[in-house]
Amino acid sequence: MIIIMVNEINWFPGHMAKTRREIKENLKLVDAVIEIRDSRIVQSSANPEIDKICKDKPRIILLNKCDLSEEKVTKEWINVLSKNNVKALAVNSLNGLGLNSIKGEIDKLLKEKIDRLKQKGVISVIIRAMVVGIPNVGKSSFINKMAKNTAAKIGDKPGVTKSKQWIKTKMGIELMDTPGVLWPKFEEKKVGLNLAFTGAIKDEIMDVEELALSLIERLQKYYPDRLIKRYKLDSLEETALENMDKIAKKRGAILSKGNIDYNRVSIMLLDEFRGGKLGQVSLERPVE
C-alpha cells in the first residue's frame, strides 16, 4: 500500500482557488460571514484564508458537531474565539441545537447598521450572510436545517457542494453558500491528521492503518479510559500497535492462522470515532 503523508498533500486545485476569488468578490454582497468548524478540531478545521479574506466582516464561528466534542473544551474555545466583531457558538446542525442563537448574535454584531436602517424607515431588516468552511464540517447540513428543506445537497464525501447558491431562512437571514475550501498545504502534520481523523480528507488517499494507529496514539494521551471501556480491555499497553492488536482480538478482526486483520480493525476504529461511539472527544485544546 502506498502511504501518503498528510503534511505532503497539496490541497489547492483550481476550483479551490476559484472559490477563494469568489469569496473575495461576493463579500460586498453580504453583511456578515458564518464560518463553520468542527468542534472536535477547532484549529485544524479553520481555514487561515478566511481570517485574511473576511477580517473586516462581522463573523459568527459555529463550532459544529458539538455533540461529538467535550463540552468543557468547546466552552474554552468559545471564550478564546469570541472577540470584537467575532462571536463563537456551539451548535449541532443535525438536530438544530444552538442554531436559534445565531440571529440574536448577528443582530448584536450588526446593531449599528440595523439601527441606521430602522431610522430610515426599514421595518424588516433582512440580513445576508455568507457561509464558509472547509469540506465535511457540516455546512450543507447547517444550511438545510436553517432553511428547513433540502436546498443544499448533502453528501458523506468531502467537497460535495460545488457552487454558491442563495438560501432563504425563516429567521430573516439569507444565506450564500460556497463550496468547501482548504488552504494550499498543511504546515503541520498534526493538522493533516486531525482532518483525516474526522473525514475531511478522503480515506481513499490515506493509509487507513497508519491513520488508525495515529488515532489510537492520540486517544491514549487524552482518553485512555474511553479505549478501555469501549473495547473491553483490561488495560492499555505502551504502544499504539499493541493496543490495536488487543482491540482487533476483542472484535474478532483476525485472519487465517491468527494474523491480525489490520485493515478491518482500522476501518472499524475510524468509523466508531467519527460516529461518536467513543464518546465526546476533543482532539485540540486552546491551551496547546
From TrEMBL:
Keywords: Cytoplasm, GTP-binding, Hydrolase, Nucleotide-binding, RNA-binding. The keyword Metal-binding does not apply. GTP binds at N64, K65, C66, D67, N92, S93, N136, V137, G138, K139, S140, S141, G180. InterPro entries: GTP-bd, GTP-bd_ortho_bundle_sf, GTP-bd_ribosome_bgen, GTPase_MTG1, P-loop_NTPase. It is found in: Cytoplasm. The keyword Cytoplasm applies. One of its GO terms (biological process) is translation. Gene3D superfamilies: 1.10.1580.10, P-loop containing nucleotide triphosphate hydrolases (3.40.50.300). One of its GO terms (cellular component) is cytoplasm. Its main location: cytoplasm. Transmembrane segments: none annotated. NCBIfam families: GTPase_YlqF (TIGR03596). Belongs to the TRAFAC class YlqF/YawG GTPase family. MTG1 subfamily. This is Ribosome biogenesis GTPase A.
